[in-house]
Specification:
Shape: globular
Number of helices: 11
Protein name: Sulfotransferase
Radius of gyration: 19 Å
Number of strands: 6
């Protein structure tokens, strides 16, 4: 679906958002987009515009980039670049047929997350009151319809959301996946110009800027673990593990590839800036969450 990474600096970024893998990342991009009159944050390519963004639940004006302290070469000084953020549940389904051909200089980025914590976080997002109601609440949450009528279906439809999204399959659909789907998803992930690992937030943000240039803003590190993942009983964790077999395989390969990209930066002339970024911001990182981590 995607061409290999390009050597020339990108003129824009396409952020492909997989639910509950690090929403604060896309919020940062959207805040920056809100500084652009020519912004486009829709998978369908609908034009938008405006000079507003929300910060601390208040509507504020913004005229400069919220993402780059200092933008890399080729990025618009008003908004830090032509950033297009997608929050839909499919990877390329609606727009990719023509978008890359029409925008060959765009870079593509995404985030992946440890699958058990990602799914439990999704459960807490869709039915928070049930998830806090003990075993009975969890059974109702996992066995019956989600509370949000926009997303009909039950827990089984949310299996392997990351693999489905990266393979171009609607993550809200009950689908029997196979090795071809996994290979497609992994190949698409590895062809991206950048992908981060939510469980290694500080390193991911620093690697993003080591890849594209610019200096990270402090706001990018405020929500190391945004959101809240409810504490799940052991039987829920096991059930989630059984429903994320493909995602766990994808994540294992993706996390290893992420480390390879970190190692490549450390062996390059970008090592000093990357290391300084990690050292500066690592104190704000609450640590690496495991399967029940709280990164939202």
């Amino acid at each position: 679906m995607l061409t290999p990474r390009r050597a020339a600096p990108p003129t824009g970024l396409r952020f492909l958002h997989i639910p509950k893998t690090g929403t604060s990342f896309i919020i940062t991009l959207r805040n920056q987009l809100d500084a652009c009159k020519h912004k486009d944050i829709s998978c369908m390519g609908a034009a938008g515009g405006g000079l507003w963004h929300f910060e601390h639940s208040k509507k504020e004006k913004v005229y400069s980039s919220m993402f780059f302290e200092k933008g890399p070469p080729g990025f618009d000084p008003l908004c830090g670049g032509n950033l297009v953020a997608c929050k839909w549940g499919t990877y390329h389904k609606f727009y990719e047929r023509d978008f890359q051909a029409n925008n060959p200089s765009f870079a593509y980025v995404t985030l992946i997350r440890e699958p058990v914590s990602q799914t439990i976080s999704m459960a807490g997002w869709k039915c928070p009151s049930l998830a806090e109601a003990g075993d009975a609440g969890w059974r109702e949450c996992l066995d019956s319809a989600w509370l949000d009528k926009k997303y009909p279906g039950n827990f089984s439809t949310w299996h392997d959301a990351q693999t489905k999204s990266l393979a171009g399959i609607n993550f809200n659909r009950l689908t029997k996946l196979n090795e071809v789907n996994l290979t497609t998803a992994l190949n698409n992930l590895l062809k991206l110009d950048f992908f981060g690992v939510t469980d290694r937030w500080t390193e991911s943000i620093c690697l993003f800027h080591a890849t594209f240039g610019g200096e990270p803003r402090p706001s990018q590190f405020l929500n190391v673990r945004p959101g809240h993942s409810p504490s799940a009983p052991a039987w829920v964790v096991e059930r989630v593990r059984a429903n994320t077999v493909w995602d766990r395989r994808l994540y294992a390969a993706g996390a290893a590839a992420f480390q390879c990209r970190v190692d490549a930066v450390l062996a390059s002339d970008r090592a000093a800036s990357y290391t300084a970024c990690v050292q500066k911001h690592s104190a704000k990182d609450a640590g690496t969450p495991g399967e029940l981590g709280r990164t939202g």
